[in-house]
Amino acid sequence: MNALVTKATVAQEYLEASEYGALYGWQFSPINESGLLFTVLLVSPVDQERYELEFRFDDYPEKPYLIEFLHSPSGQRGTQACYPKGADHFFHPNAAICHPCSRKAYVGYAGLHGDWNMAGWQKIAGGMTNLRFILDGIYSRIIDKTLYHGRMAKPLGQ
Known about the structure:
Elements: H1 3-21, E1 27-28, E2 37-43, E3 50-56, E4 66-71, E5 76-77, E6 84-86, E7 91-92, E8 96-97, H2 131-142, E9 148-151
Antiparallel strand pairs: 1-2, 2-3, 3-4, 4-5, 6-9, 7-8
């Protein structure tokens, strides 16, 4: 994927998502152009838990974002302590988002779906094909008391 196309696409999606997310208090870090990443902080109004997500976007939109949950206070990344626990299988116990919008769900990453093809991922991702809708899908799960059950595990030191 052409790096200029990737950066332009992400910049546009980032702008749209940050404008939309301002309504909900989503906090965006600046885009790290050399590292091809940024973070977004979402807070669950159910229990005030803070969820920090890292979005890596090399080869985006050809490949989906590589989405990782972080727990900055403990220094953990990609563990159950970083992830929300949900009633559906969206937040997978293997510490991944189990959805085509997340590169981590494919073989070669967390390896949840060997039957999914990353090429053309948008065709199987339903409506979650850009940053705003991906974040909205995540946020809608951490604000819904029927779907959201706190963190999967306690972070180190808590």
